[in-house]
Design a protein that fits this description.
Elements: H1 2-13, H2 16-33, H3 38-58, H4 65-73, H5 75-93, H6 98-115, H7 132-151, H8 158-182, H9 193-197, H10 199-217, H11 227-243, H12 251-258, H13 261-272
Helix pairs in contact: 2-3, 2-7, 2-13, 3-5, 3-6, 6-7, 7-8, 8-10, 8-12, 10-11, 11-13
Amino acid sequence: MQVLKQSFAFYVFGNIHVAVAAYCLTKISFLQFDITNQPLANFVFFSTLLSYNFIRWFQLDKLNSMTSIWIRAHKRSLIVLNSLALIGSVYYLLNFRFADIILLIPFFLATFFYAFPFKKRTTGLRNVPGLKLFLISITWTGITLCLPLFSAQIHFSHFEYIAIAQRFLFVLAITIPFDIRDAQFDLPGLNTIPQVLGVNRSKIIAVLALVIVMLLDTLIPYKGSNFFSINLLIMVLSIIMISFSGTKRGRFYTAFWIEALPILWYLFYLLLIN
C-alpha cells in the first residue's frame, strides 16, 4: 500500500499527470479534425512534463512547503524523469517541419520567462499581475490545438477559430480552481482572479466560460453523432467540479481530479465516438 501511495504521489507531483492531460487534449484535437500525427502527441507529452518540472524546479523557494519538501526529497528521481523527458522532446521534435518549430518558439520563450525574469531586477511572467491565467490558457491552446492544426496544414475557417476559442475558454475555466487553491499562498500583487474578485465570483467566471463553450459547440458540424454529447457531458462535469473547488480543498482535488478532466474527455471519445 505504501508503494502505491508513493507511486501515485510521484505520478501527480512529478507532473506526469498534467503531461498526460496535455497529451489527451492533443489527441482530442486529432479526433475532432481527423488528424494523424502520433509523434506530435508524444512531443506534447514529453515537453509538457519537462516544462512543468523546469518551472517548479526554478521556483522551488516560492512553492508551498509541502510541494517543495516533496521535490527536494525526490531530487534524484526527478532528475532521471526530466532527463528522459528532455530526450523524448528532442527525439520527437526531429519529426517536425521547420515551420512547426518556428511556431513553437513563442511558447518556448513563454515557458522560459514564466520561471525566469527578463532582467535581474524584474520578475518572471508568472508574477506579472493578472497575466498568469491567460498565459497558461494561451500556451495550452497553442500547443494542444493550434500546433496540430498548423502541422496538418489545415486551412483555418471559422470552425477552427471557434474550436480555438473553445479550447482557450475550457483551459481558462479549469485553471481557475488552481488559482483559488493557491490564493492563500500567492503574493497579493499577483492579482489573480480569486484575489481580485473573490472565490465565488471566480467560480462564476469559470462556469460562464464553460457555458460559452457549450453554446459555441452547437455551431460546429461534427462528423460523428456523439461528439456534441460527450463535449456537453464533460462541460457539465467540469462545472460541477469547479463548483466544489475552494481554498480548503486538498491539493489532490485540483492536481489530480480537475487535471483528469481532459483524460476522461479523451477516454469518452475513444469509447463512444462512432
